[in-house]
Amino acid sequence: MALHDIVSPLPGTFYRRPSPDADYYVALDATVAAGAVVGLVEVMKQFTEIESEVPGRVVELLVEDGEPVDAGQVLMRIEG
């Protein structure tokens, strides 16, 4: 199986859940569908959904909830 990087399309703050009291979109070893939302990047109160482009299993989470990210930074890896 191939590994697929999910990257941030823009600089901002990465969130693994839609609100502070909500569950994470995905966890390590979770199965995701193509098109599934796996996180958010916030820039100046504008939120951009990050989607998985492939179906598979989350094998690496590289950024913590609330951590700043750069454009092109790998957020997680999907095996699929």
Which second-level CATH architecture applies?
Answer: Beta Barrel
Work out the helicity level: under 10%
Radius of gyration: 12 Å
Largest sheet, in brief, is:
4 strands, antiparallel
Oligomer class: single chain
Number of strands: 8
Function: This protein is a component of the acetyl coenzyme A carboxylase complex; first, biotin carboxylase catalyzes the carboxylation of the carrier protein and then the transcarboxylase transfers the carboxyl group to form malonyl-CoA.
InterPro entries: AcCoA_biotinCC (IPR001249), Biotin_Carboxyl_Carrier/Decarb (IPR050709), Biotin_lipoyl (IPR000089), Single_hybrid_motif (IPR011053)
Organism: Burkholderia multivorans
GO molecular function: acetyl-CoA carboxylase activity
Name its key features:
49% strand; OB fold (Dihydrolipoamide Acetyltransferase, E2P); fatty acid biosynthesis; single chain; four-stranded antiparallel beta sheet; mainly beta; 80 residues; fatty acid metabolism
Describe the structure.
There is one protein chain. The protein has 80 residues and is an all-beta fold. Helix content is 0%, strand content 49%. It has one domain (3-79): Beta Barrel (OB fold (Dihydrolipoamide Acetyltransferase, E2P)), CATH 2.40.50.100. The chain is globular and about 35 Å long.
